[in-house]
Design a protein that fits this description.
Length: 176
């Protein structure tokens, strides 16, 4: 492959594995939803996910105050709503109403589950690395629609471009 020099400031678009999630948060009657893609699993059991949530975001405030949130995994069908939730702040707007996001109560946390997302992970803040605005979230309850076999998840490539997943290849020798 003939590789060329690539700007360091755009490296994230190569490594940002996703899937893009919609993080819902809730505290004292305030709620919010934001798009998020800088996350990674760091432990199997307990299931721990490391998530960068900028402290400029209203969601950061709500997650910090409540110590909880839900990672909802959307698919291509609601891509426009995902982009909308990633380009407006819940400080000045009810994004649930604006983007028509139906919700259901979670079982262990105050933040809601998004009905249109095929999976929702209820999380509690386990630890933080404030210098990187990084939350280590423990998944305490997981919900998945069993009818969605090959979810068309969104994988951000930077500058408004998304790669869409959809096919599953199985290699039994690569089991965990
Ligand atoms: C595809 C996509 C991925 C994003 N990933 C992140 C992320 O990983 N961390 C982050 O802090 N903001 C991320 N954002 C930006 C937030 O979603 C955006 O700042 C949002 O307006 C915050 O909303 P809030 O103020 O209501 O919390 C992303 C936006 C998009 C569109």
């Amino acid at each position: 492959m003939a590789k060329m020099d690539f700007p360091l400031s755009e490296v994230y678009g190569l490594l940002e594995t996703g899937p893009v999630v919609l993080i819902t948060s809730h505290v004292n009657g305030k709620r919010d939803v934001m798009a998020q893609s800088w996350h990674t699993m760091v432990e199997f059991e307990p299931a721990i996910v490391a998530c960068v949530v900028s402290d400029r975001n209203f969601s950061h405030e709500l997650i910090l105050e409540s110590g909880e949130c839900v990672l909802n995994i959307p698919t291509f069908e609601i891509a426009e709503k995902v982009v909308g939730c990633g380009n407006a702040s819940g400080r000045d707007l009810d994004k649930f109403a604006k983007f028509g996001l139906a919700v259901s109560p979670a079982s262990l946390v105050g933040a809601p589950l998004l009905d249109e997302c095929y999976a929702s992970l209820e999380c509690r803040v386990f630890d933080r690395i404030p210098a990187y605005e990084l939350f280590l979230l423990q998944v305490v309850k997981a919900w998945v629609d069993p009818d969605v076999a090959d979810p068309k998840t969104l994988h951000h490539r930077g500058f408004g471009a998304f790669m869409i997943a959809g096919e599953t290849a199985r290699f039994p020798s690569a089991m965990k």
